[in-house]
Amino acid sequence: MLKEERHQTILTQVELHNRVLLTDIAERLDVSIDTVRRDVKELDQESKLRKVHGGAISLGYTTNSTRNNNIYALSQKIIIAEKAASLLKNGAVIFIDGGTTCLEFARIIPLDIQLTCFTLSLPVAMVLNNKPNVEVIFVGGQISREAQITIGAMATNMLSEIKVDYSFIGTGYVDVSYGLTDFDWDIVQVKKAVIKASKKTVLLCISEKLNSQHRYKICDINAIDTMVTELDWNDDQLKLFSSHDVHIF
């Protein structure tokens, strides 16, 4: 495979999943870790992604309260955010996860709706802080520099003491048989705590992530009450999910 082809594959995977491991890319490309490390370093120098220890993250993931137009599949994520916003009810207590899709959801929340919102995402908290009728409660703890969320015992303990009406979460990988998965053990533990703290869990997920999996399990697919994608609810790609008692929206 030519270097240009390797670079495009790396960028596609980084943009789709936001964060990737060098080991995963090396396996996918069937090349050495050293080759992938050099490729990632070059792409970082070209400002196409950000190199981190053991992997890479998309530029869209290193964002703040100002929209970063490097966000992958932004138009699809805005559709998902608009759908999810229609589920909000005045006076509800909700949780919003980290990640680019959840960040778009936070941006699109109407200014006139009254909510109490828990979040462990720094970018989401910054956006919500500009919503005059949203009370923002930040779930504290150790900050993951790459994911820009809090992780660890302090975060999971705080989550164990709350119960929200809806949690709006994202995921890197989702599959009918394997459920929600991730490669970051700390993030898996936090997401488990979020789901346990929720009366209902809403998954915000672009369709490209469907039928993908990784090593650590977050939950079975039927632990999700509603899955919101950019697709129509009756799209063939979603039929298997709806057969597992997941409401498709």
Topology, element by element:
Layout: H1 3-17, E1 19-21, H2 22-29, H3 33-45, E2 50-52, E3 55-57, H4 74-85, E4 93-96, H5 100-108, E5 115-119, H6 122-128, E6 134-138, E7 142-144, E8 149-151, H7 153-159, E9 164-169, E10 173-175, E11 179-182, H8 185-196, E12 198-204, E13 216-219, E14 226-228, H9 239-242, E15 247-248
Parallel strand pairs: 4-5, 4-9, 5-6, 9-12, 12-14, 14-15
Antiparallel strand pairs: 1-3, 2-3, 7-8, 10-11, 11-13
Helix pairs in contact: 1-3, 2-3, 4-5, 5-6, 7-8
Q: Short summary of the structure?
A:
The chain contains nine helices and 15 strands.
Q: So, the CATH homologous superfamily of the largest domain?
A: Translation initiation factor eif-2b, domain 2
Order of secondary-structure elements = HEHHEEHEHEHEEEHEEEHEEEHE
Report helical residue fraction. Answer: 25-40%
Kindly identify the CATH topology of the largest domain: Rossmann fold
Described by the principal axes of the CA atoms, the overall outline is globular
| Rg from Cα | 18 Å
